[in-house]
Design brief:
The protein is 5% helix and 36% strand. With 991 residues, the chain is mainly beta. β11 and β12 form a beta hairpin. It is globular and about 90 Å long. The N and C termini lie far apart (80 Å).
Length: 991
C-alpha cells in the first residue's frame, strides 16, 4: 500500500460524456475545459486548461502528461510556440469572462526540449513595467500571446491581458506597456498581424470598446480606427468583445466577430484590406431552439483555414464552418458524432490542413476531415473542474461529484468515471440511511424560468426527477439569483434535506415538498432585510453532528448564522427556529464581510456543551467580475463560539498557515491563499483539514498551528471541497481543474510502496481493504455482490457469426489496436463456451503515486465444485508463479503464458489480453488473476483461493458461466431437424 501521499482518484476521462448534441450511450470520453492550444514540433501538442495547467502529448493525443503541476498558477489563458527557439510561452489566468475563470500569476516560458524530463525547465517573467509588482501578477489574466517575427532576432512578444498589452523585444527580459489613445490600462480581447497593400499592420480589439491599430512610428502606441471602416462602427455601442482572425494564405483578409454586451452576437465582419473597408457577412442560424447562439463573453473561436481564405470557422457554444467567406454556414457540432459545447480554441496542422484540433469545455478533440467530424483525445487527462463531492455512506468505492459544464459524475472504483446527470453539476447528496436515494443539482433557475436547484434519483443515479415543489419561484428577481445553491442531507434523519437560498428550506420527504424555516413570530427567516440576490444568499450549510437541531449557514456577504430548530409541526412539517447571527461588531476580532465557502462542526463527547463552528472564506476569486484578489491580514479560517457571547467569540486561525513557496516567486502567503473547504476528523475534534487555492493543510491542535499535507504530490490546483470518509479514514479533495485526489489520513503500516497495484474483487473493492464475502450493491436499488464478481476480469467469447467483439476503445485510437481501459469499462462480459476461442481481459490498476515497473500478470482457471466452492490452489502454486507450469493432472490450469507491461502509470489502468480455448467441463469456471510488479510485489503462501482473493489486493477471481458452444447448439438443431425430416419421410413412405 502506498504511503500517506496524495494520489489521483480520477477521473482521467469521463465515459459517455456530455455533448453539444443530445448525449448517447457509449458517447465520447470527455475531460475538463481547454482554453488554448498550440501544435509543437512533429506530433507534439500542448494544451492550456482552465484549472489544470499545461499538458503535453508527444504522439497526437494518444498519451498526455501534465507539465506544470507545481507552477504558481493552474489557470492558463494563452499559449504560443516559438519553434526556432524551442520555447513555449505560457500566459496564466483565463481571459474569458465567466464564473470560475481564475486569475493568473504572470507569464512563463517552458523549454520544450525538456518536456520528457521529470521536471521540465520553466522560467517566470518578473520584469513588468513599474508600478506592477508581485501582487499585480495576481490580477493579470491572459487573453492572447502573439509572436511577431523580427528578422534574425528573437520574435517580439505581445502579451494581451485584462490590464493592458505588454511588449518585449528581448525574450521577456524587459517589458513595455503600450497605450491606446494614450491610456495604458485596457482589457485586450484579441490581436492579429496583417497587411494592407503590402504595409504591415497590427490590429487589437478591446473588450467593451473598439478596434485599434499600431502606430507606424511608435510600436508602443495604438490609435483607435475611426476611418475607412465600412460597415463597422467606429465605436460599437453594442460591442462587448472584439475577436480578430487573419487568413494565413492572404494577410490582407481579416475577419472580426463582435459580441454584444448582453453576451449575444452582433455578427461577423470581413475586410480584404487589412482592416479597412469592413463588410458584414452572414451569421450562423441555430439548428435547434435548444441551442441558441450565445455566451460571447465566455466562448469564442474565429479561425481561418491555412490555405483557403474563404474557409472560416466560428465557435460559440457550437462550432460552425463557412466555405464562402461567411455567407453560409454549416453546423459541425450538432450532428453525430459531434463534440462538446462551448468552444475556446481551434488550431490546424500546418503540414496537413485537413487535421485540426479543437479545445472546449469537454477537453481536446481531433478532426481529420477539416472539422466535419470530431474524435475525442481526452483519455489520460485529469482536468475536470468540480464544485462539490459526496461519499457513499457505506463504501469508499462510490462517490458523486458535480462538474463545471460536465454534469454530475459517479466514481465507482475506476479512474474512468461515468456521467449520470447532464448540464452543469454542483452539489450532490446520498441519503445516509437509505443510500439508493441520490441527489444532484443543476442551475437554480433554467432558461425557461423553472427552479432546477435539486433533483433526485430513486435508483442510485439511474434516472433523475427535479424535486423543487414548494420552493418560492418569486424569491429572486430575474437575473439576480445565484447560479446554483447549496444543499445537504441531514446525516441523522432519513429523508431530510436542507437547501439554502436567502431562506433555509427543509424537506422531510426527500424533496416531495419544501418548507422555509420560520422564526418564532411566524415570519420567514431570511439572510437579508433587503432584496434577495446572489450577494446575500446562503453559500454553505452544515448540520451539527452533536445536535441535529442546530443548523449553521454561511452567506455570500460574510454572515454566520445559527438556526436552532425549536419545533417541527408533526402534521405539516413546518420548522420553527431561533435565529442567532454571529456578531459583526464589538468583537475583538471578526472576519471580513466576504463569502463563507464552507463550515464544519466537530463531533464531541456526549453531554459536551455547544460545539464551536469553524468557518472558512475563499471562492470570491473564482468569479470574473469584481474578482481582483486582495490580501486578508487576519487570514481566512475562523472559529466561532455561539455559547460565549463575549468579545472573543471569534478566533482567527488562519495566520499560521505556511506560505506556499516557488523558486521564481512570488510566494503565496496565507493572506492570499484563499480557503475553500474544511473537514474535521470525526474521531478527533482537534484534527482539522483545510483545502486552499494552493494546497491542503492540517492542524492537530484545533487550528492553532498548521502543516502542509502536500509534498510534491498534490498539484497546485484550487481545492474546492474536502470530504472525510468516516469508516475508511480517507480524505478526498475535489479540485477546480485537476480532478479528485485522495489521501489516507492515518499512518500506513509497512510495507510503504510508491506504486500500489491491485485488481478489484467487485465494485465495493478499491484495493485498500479486505473484501467482504458478500455485500449490498451500492450502484443498484437492490442486489448483492459476491467476492467472486471480479470487475477487472472480463470474457469475450468468439461468436459463431461475427467473431470477437470490436474493442470499444483502443490504446492508439485505431480500430485494430489493443484494448484500453476506457474500452474495457464499456466492454461486456460473456459466458464461456466449451471448446470455443476466448479472450480473457485483465485490467490492472495502479494507485501510484509512482509508475509501476515490470508489471507481470497471469490468469488461471478451474472448475467450480458442485457445492459452489473452488478447489484450493496447489501447494507449490506461489513458487511456480508467474512462469512455472502447474501439474496437468491438477485442478488449476493457466489460461495462457504470463504477460509483462514495462510500466503502468497511476490513474491509467493497463489491460492484458489472454487467449485460450474454453474447457469442456460440466460446471462453471473460476478465473483467478494474479499480478505483481517490482515496487509492489506479491508475497503469498496461502492456498485457500477465497481467502487469498478477498485479502490480497493483487489477486481476484471471477466466476464465469460455461455453456455449450454455439456451433454445437446449431449442429444439434440441424441434427434434430434432419431426424425429424427422416421420420416424416418414413411415415409418408408407409402411408
Amino acid at each position: 500500500m502506498s504511503s500517506n501521499k496524495w494520489t489521483l482518484l480520477g477521473p482521467t476521462g469521463v465515459l459517455d460524456g456530455q455533448m453539444h448534441l443530445p448525449s448517447t450511450p457509449d458517447g465520447p470520453t470527455i475531460a475538463g475545459r481547454v482554453t488554448c492550444l498550440v501544435r509543437g514540433s512533429g506530433t507534439s501538442t500542448f494544451i492550456g486548461t482552465a484549472g489544470g495547467g499545461v499538458w503535453h502529448s508527444p504522439d497526437d493525443g494518444v498519451t498526455w502528461r501534465s507539465l506544470t503541476d507545481f507552477l504558481p498558477c493552474a489557470s492558463i489563458g494563452a499559449l504560443a510556440f516559438d519553434a526556432a527557439n524551442n520555447r513555449l510561452w505560457i500566459g496564466s489566468g483565463e481571459g474569458n469572462r465567466a464564473g470560475r475563470a481564475m486569475f493568473g500569476q504572470g507569464l512563463f516560458t517552458l523549454d520544450t526540449t525538456t518536456v520528457g524530463n521529470a521536471s521540465p525547465t520553466i522560467a517566470r517573467m518578473v520584469n513588468l513595467p513599474a508600478p506592477r509588482g508581485a501582487d499585480d501578477f495576481r490580477r493579470l489574466r491572459s487573453a492572447q500571446i502573439l509572436l511577431e517575427p523580427n528578422a534574425a532576432n528573437p520574435p517580439i512578444v505581445w502579451w494581451g491581458t485584462n490590464e493592458g498589452l505588454f511588449r518585449s523585444t528581448d525574450s521577456g527580459a524587459n517589458w513595455a506597456q503600450v497605450t491606446f489613445n494614450g491610456a495604458a490600462r485596457d482589457d485586450v480581447a484579441s490581436m492579429v498581424l496583417c497587411t494592407s497593400t503590402g504595409t504591415a499592420r497590427m490590429l487589437v480589439g478591446l473588450w467593451d470598446q473598439r478596434l485599434y491599430i499600431r502606430q507606424a512610428a511608435d510600436p508602443t502606441q495604438f490609435d483607435a480606427l475611426t476611418t475607412d471602416l465600412g460597415a463597422l462602427a467606429a465605436t460599437p455601442t453594442i460591442g462587448q468583445r472584439i475577436v480578430l482572425a487573419v487568413a494565413p494564405s492572404n494577410s490582407e483578409r481579416v475577419y472580426l466577430a463582435l459580441g454584444k454586451s448582453d453576451n449575444t452576437w452582433d455578427g461577423i465582419y470581413s475586410s480584404n484590406a487589412g482592416g479597412k473597408g469592413w463588410t458584414k457577412v452572414g451569421f450562423p442560424t441555430p439548428t435547434s431552439p435548444q441551442r441558441p447562439l450565445g455566451q460571447s463573453h465566455y466562448n469564442i473561436i474565429l479561425t481561418v483555414h491555412p490555405t483557403t481564405p474563404n474557409t472560416l470557422y466560428f465557435g460559440e457554444t457550437g462550432i460552425w464552418r463557412s466555405i464562402d467567406g461567411g455567407t453560409t454556414w454549416t453546423d459541425l457540432a450538432s450532428t453525430a458524432p459531434g463534440t462538446h459545447s462551448d468552444q475556446h480554441a481551434l488550431v490546424f496542422e500546418a503540414a496537413n490542413p485537413s487535421r485540426c484540433w479543437l479545445g472546449n469545455d469537454g477537453g481536446i478533440w481531433l478532426s481529420t476531415d477539416g472539422g466535419t467530424t470530431w474524435a475525442s483525445r481526452n483519455r489520460g487527462l485529469s482536468t475536470l473542474q468540480y464544485y462539490a463531492l459526496v461519499h457513499h455512506p457505506n463504501v469508499d468505492s462510490v462517490l458523486l461529484a458535480g462538474a463545471q459544464d460536465n454534469g454530475t459524475q459517479r466514481f465507482a472504483g475506476h479512474p474512468a468515471w461515468h456521467l449520470i446527470g447532464g448540464g452543469d453539476g454542483f452539489y450532490c447528496g446520498i441519503d445516509p440511511l437509505t443510500p439508493r436515494f441520490w441527489y444532484s443539482s443543476y442551475v437554480y433557475r433554467d432558461g425557461a424560468g423553472n427552479i432546477r436547484a435539486i433533483q433526485r434519483s430513486d435508483a442510485a443515479g439511474a434516472s433523475w426527477v427535479p424535486k423543487t415543489g414548494g420552493i418560492d419561484p418569486t424569491e429572486y428577481a430575474a437575473g439576480v439569483e445565484p447560479f446554483y445553491v447549496p444543499f445537504i442531507c441531514d446525516p441523522t434523519a432519513d429523508s431530510v434535506v436542507w437547501l439554502g437560498t436567502t431562506r433555509l428550506w427543509r424537506t422531510r420527504d426527500r424533496g416531495e415538498g419544501w418548507l422555509a424555516v420560520r422564526k418564532g413570530d411566524g415570519t420567514l427567516f431570511s439572510t437579508t432585510t433587503g432584496a434577495p440576490s446572489s450577494g446575500n444568499s446562503i453559500t454553505c450549510i452544515t448540520v451539527d453532528p452533536n445536535d441535529a437541531n442546530n443548523i449553521y449557514v454561511g452567506t455570500a456577504d460574510g454572515q454566520l448564522i445559527r438556526v436552532h430548530i425549536d419545533s417541527i409541526n408533526a402534521t405539516t412539517g413546518q420548522p420553527t427556529a431561533t435565529i442567532t447571527v454571529a456578531r459583526t461588531t464589538g468583537a475583538a476580532a471578526r472576519p471580513d464581510a466576504i463569502e463563507f465557502t464552507d463550515l464544519a462542526v466537530p463531533k464531541l463527547a456526549a453531554g459536551a456543551p455547544l460545539a464551536p463552528v469553524y468557518a472558512v472564506q475563499g471562492s470570491s476569486y473564482l468569479t470574473f467580475r469584481g474578482s481582483e484578489p486582495s490580501a486578508v491580514a487576519s487570514g481566512r479560517v475562523w472559529k466561532h463560539d455561539f455559547a460565549s457571547g463575549a468579545a472573543t467569540d471569534w478566533t482567527a486561525l488562519g495566520t499560521t498557515i505556511p506560505a506556499v513557496t516557488f523558486p521564481s516567486g512570488p510566494d503565496l502567503p496565507f493572506q492570499w491563499n484563499f480557503v475553500n473547504a474544511i473537514a474535521i476528523d470525526p474521531t478527533n475534534a482537534q484534527r482539522i483539514f483545510i483545502g486552499c487555492h494552493m494546497g491542503v493543510f492540517e492542524s492537530t491542535n484545533g487550528g492553532t498551528a498548521w502543516t502542509a499535507t502536500h509534498n510534491s504530490d498534490l498539484p497546485f490546483a484550487p481545492v474546492v471541497d474536502l470530504q472525510f470518509h468516516p469508516t475508511h479514514r480517507l480524505l478526498r479533495g475535489a479540485t477546480m481543474g485537476r480532478s479528485v485526489w485522495e489521501r489516507l489520513v492515518d499512518a500506513v503500516a509497512p510495507p510503504d510502496t510508491q506504486a500500489d497495484i491491485y485488481i478489484r474483487d467487485n465494485v465495493i473493492d478499491i484495493g485498500r481493504f479486505d473484501t467482504p464475502v458478500s455485500g449490498a450493491d451500492p450502484l443498484a436499488a437492490s442486489g448483492t455482490l459476491a467476492w467472486f464478481d471480479a470487475v477487472d476480469i472480463k470474457v469475450d467469447t468468439e461468436a459463431f457469426i461475427g467473431g470477437f467483439e470490436t474493442a470499444p476503445g483502443t490504446i492508439d485510437y485505431t480500430p485494430g489496436g489493443a484494448l484500453d481501459y476506457v474500452g474495457f469499462q464499456r466492454l461486456g462480459s460473456d459466458a464461456l463456451q466449451r471448446d470455443v476461442e476466448t479472450r480473457v481481459h485483465l485490467q490492472v490498476l495502479n494507485r501510484g503515486p509512482a509508475a509501476a515497473s515490470n508489471v507481470k500478470a497471469r490468469v488461471y482457471w478451474t472448475d467450480r465444485q458442485p457445492d459452489g466452492n473452488f478447489t484450493a490452489l496447489p501447494a507449490d502454486f506461489w513458487t511456480l508463479f508467474p512462469d512455472g507450469a502447474l501439474p496437468e493432472a491438477g485442478a488449476w490450469h493457466p489460461v495462457a503464458a504470463s504477460q509483462t507491461k514495462a510500466s503502468a502509470l497511476p490513474g491509467e489502468p493497463h489491460v492484458f489480453t489472454f487467449t485460450f480455448s474454453a474447457p469442456t467441463g460440466l460446471h462453471d469456471v473460476g478465473l483467478f488473476a494474479v499480478v505483481t510488479c517490482d515496487e509492489d510485489s506479491i508475497s503469498e503462501t496461502r492456498t485457500d483461493v477465497q481467502l487469498v482473493a478477498t485479502t490480497n489486493k493483487r489477486t481476484a477471481l471471477r466466476r464465469a458461466d460455461l455453456n455449450a458452444s454455439t456451433g454445437s447448439i446449431v449442429l444439434g438443431v440441424l441434427v434434430a431437424i434432419g431426424a425429424a425430416a427422416l421420420i416424416v419421410g418414413a411415415i409418408a413412405a408407409t402411408a
